[in-house]
Design a protein that fits this description.
The structure is a single chain. It is built from four helices and five strands. The two termini are 24 Å apart. The relative contact order is 0.25. It has one domain: DsrEFH-like (Hypothetical Protein Ychn, Chain: A, 3-Layer(aba) Sandwich), CATH 3.40.1260. It has a five-stranded parallel beta sheet. By secondary structure, it is of the alpha/beta class. It is globular.
């Protein structure tokens, strides 16, 4: 059985439904004892900024801020694409719990070591 799982997320307020579902799936993976990473790229990097998710709550789901906090508290890692973050002029010193600035090489390493990792994209 695979021991890792990756969720690739490129959306933020431009598609809160996808952003929410991505973290629902990520929480399910980490609750299943998978080493789980959510990779935020393009617009998705905005989710790593404290306060950005305030007020985002899709019907039928927990608020996005709560989903992200639960994911981090369960040991999930949020990889934030450093070039994408910098391009948007965001403050690298202010990140949500569980967020780690990374380059593409770190994601490739996660996906390719020890038999690889299943991945899903939103």
């Amino acid at each position: 059985m695979d021991k890792k799982f990756c969720v690739n997320l490129t959306c933020a307020k431009d598609n809160t439904d996808k952003a929410t579902v991505a973290f629902v799936v990520a929480n399910a993976a980490v609750a299943s004892n998978k080493e789980t990473v959510v990779f935020l790229s393009t617009e998705g990097v905005r989710l790593a900024t404290p306060g950005y998710t305030d007020g985002i709550a899709e019907e039928g789901f927990a608020p996005l801020a709560q989903l992200m906090e639960s994911f981090a508290a369960a040991g999930g890692k949020i990889y934030v694409c450093s070039p994408c973050f910098k391009k948007r002029g965001l403050d690298e010193k202010r990140l949500v719990n569980g967020a780690i600035m990374v380059g593409g090489a770190k994601l490739v390493e996660f996906l390719s070591t020890e038999g690889g990792s299943p991945s899903i994209s939103y």
